[in-house]
Structure formats: C-alpha cells, structure tokens
Design goal:
This protein is mostly helical. The protein contains 8 helices and no strands. Helix 6 crosses helix 7 and helix 6 packs across helix 8. The longest helix is centred in the C-terminal third of the chain and has 26 residues.
C-alpha cells in the first residue's frame, strides 16, 4: 500500500506493474486475508498501525477482486482504468506532430510489439497492454531466476525505454495538460 501510493504519484508504469504483482500475491494466498496478514504482511517491519492499514488495503482489494470476478485471473477495474488512460495518452501522442521523439521511439519498438503479439495468446490486446504484459512476464521470469535470452533482454530494454517515455508524458500531462494540437 505504501509503495503503491508512492508509485502512483511518481511512476504510473511501475505502479501498474506493482499492482499486477499485488493481484498475483493475493491469488497466491487464495484470496485469504488472514493468510496474507499472517504469512505476508507480518513479515514486514511495520508498526501495528501500519499493519492494520495494509491489512485493510488488502481486504479492500480482495473484496474488489471477488466482486469483479478476477479471483483467478484478470485485472481489477482500477488497474484497467489506469491501462486505458495510458492507452488513450499513447494514441494522442502518436496522432500529434508535436511529439516526434515519442513517435520515433514507438516505431523503433513496434517490431517487438508485433512479434510479441504474434507469439502471445491474446492477439486482441492493444499495443500498450502487450508492452506491459511483456515487462511483467520478464519480471516474473527474473523473480523465478529463469534464463532470459539475449533477444528478449534487448526487446525488453527497448520496450522499457518506450514505456518510460509514455510514463514521463503521463506525469507531465498530470502536472500541466499537454497540448496535442
């Protein structure tokens, strides 16, 4: 919760990846708040008050996952809305002539996106989702200490740069709305 709040303000891309990880953490504990408290939250060096706050936060997320039907898979509506916001910003940046560096970065990363979509299970997802799914997938592989090929490393580096650029424009737009004209 504390990390999520900070990331939401400073790096929306990392926030979204973190929230996906939290969804998977909840699933790993079978959506059981008592297990999450006992086996996960209690391992952190939090005060009792902080543990209660985090427990409430997880409890709310579990309720939302249950009511939104994403106990087994999928993403919470709050995360889908964040993805939609990033997707809309991406479309605005691409359609404007005022952001040539973003356009150049997009076309640099597009072959990787196409390749990932061709290999992926969901060919209907948008390009930004494809980027995030690949970043999340590699993050999970690293956590499992699995090998990542040189080609994948290169693709992820390019995708990270592109999503980083999208993140920067998102933060600028929040500060003072961008002019797409």
């Amino acid at each position: 919760m504390f990390i999520a709040n900070e990331l939401r303000k400073t790096n929306i891309a990392e926030y979204l990846l973190y929230m996906w990880q939290i969804e998977d953490t909840i699933r790993a504990f079978d959506c059981s708040l008592s297990r999450i408290r006992r086996e996960y939250i209690d391992r952190f060096d939090y005060t009792e008050e902080q543990k209660e706050e985090v427990t409430d936060w997880f409890g709310n997320l579990i309720r939302m996952m249950n009511s939104e039907g994403c106990r087994e898979q999928g993403h919470l509506q709050i995360n889908k809305v964040t993805m939609q916001t990033l997707t809309e910003l991406h479309a605005q940046l691409l359609s404007s002539s005022k952001f040539p560096f973003y356009n150049a970065e997009y076309y640099k990363v597009l072959p990787y996106i196409v390749e990932l979509r061709n290999h992926g299970a969901n060919k209907e997802e948008n390009e930004i989702e494809t980027c995030f799914n690949s970043l999340y997938g590699v993050m999970m592989l690293r956590l499992q200490k699995k090998e990542i090929t040189t080609n994948t490393e290169h693709a992820i580096k390019e995708i990270s740069t592109f999503i980083g650029m999208l993140n920067d424009y998102y933060l600028k737009d929040k500060e003072e709305p961008l002019e797409f004209g």
